[in-house]
Amino acid sequence: MIEPDDTSAARAAYDTVAVDYDELLRDELAGKPHDRAQLAAFAELVQADGNGSVADIGCGPGRITAHLHDLGLQVFGIDLSPEMIAVARQAHPSLQFLEGTMEALDLADDTLGGIVAWYSIIHTPPERLPLVFAEFARVLVAGGYLLLAFQAGDEPRHLAHAYGHDIDLMAYRLPPDRIVDLLAAAGLAVQSQLVRAPDQSEKTPQAFLLARKR
């Protein structure tokens, strides 16, 4: 399978910024009570069902993976960037981190009780998101949960500089209602939807969708 150019570009960009990304965002969640509430609700639902482990897909340096672990989940991280994985393993040596892409997960069908994709669908062109959501549905058990976070909007952006480095990367703000429809088409029914106003470090509203595999 030939890797899409945007996947290669995302890997190169996150390899470049990995160390500084970790340093800048390591404690960001502490100042975001709405975001923590979404993760806490997800963790409680997964634990109540007892359907198995959780994958933090697009885990970066592992900060959300570690937070989910602290909430009591059996969780591991997956990311396409080897440098991000290296940072995650160094920062959280007791947790498991694997290299992989969200469009071709190296996981068996019906194996996960939950998936978190925390701002990790934003570099996938919207026309390929149905493939991503179908892959998520494939690896979730029936009744398993998916939590998505992304910037709300409806336009692409080119990132030429981020986290102190020159990069070449596209990012996509996404309309929540459209994502709800795409999830439904993949067999993932949205249970809750939150769009919060941007905080002082953000430029756009932030969207959170919690879905469940039928």
Describe the structure in your own words:
α1 runs parallel beside α4. It contains six helices and nine strands, in the order ααβαβαββαβββαββ. The two termini are 29 Å apart. The strands form two sheets. The protein has a seven-stranded mixed beta sheet, with helices on both faces. It has a single domain, classed as Vaccinia Virus protein VP39 (Rossmann fold, 3-Layer(aba) Sandwich). The mean pLDDT is 96. 36% of the residues lie in helices and 30% in strands. β4, α5 and β5 form a beta-alpha-beta unit. With 214 residues, the chain is of the alpha/beta class.
Notable features of this structure?
214 residues; alpha/beta; Rossmann fold; 7-stranded mixed β-sheet; two-stranded antiparallel sheet; 6 helices; 36% helix; globular; methyltransferase; Class I SAM-dependent methyltransferase
Poorly predicted parts:
none
Write down the secondary-structure element order: HHEHEHEEHEEEHEE
CATH-defined topology = Rossmann fold
What's the domain count?
Answer: 1
Work out the radius of gyration: 16 Å
Terminus-to-terminus distance: 29 Å
CATH class, named Alpha Beta
How much helix is in the residues? Answer: 25-40%
CATH architecture: 3-Layer(aba) Sandwich
Strand order of the largest sheet: 3-2-1-4-5-9-8
Number of helices: 6
Query: Total strand count, please?
Result: 9
Main sheet attributes: strand count, strand direction, barrel closure: 7 strands, mixed
Question: Looking at the structure, what is the overall shape?
Answer: globular
Protein name: Class I SAM-dependent methyltransferase
InterPro entries: Methyltransf_25, Methyltransf_Superfamily, SAM-dependent_MTases_sf
Domain Methyltransferase: 54-144
GO molecular function: methyltransferase activity
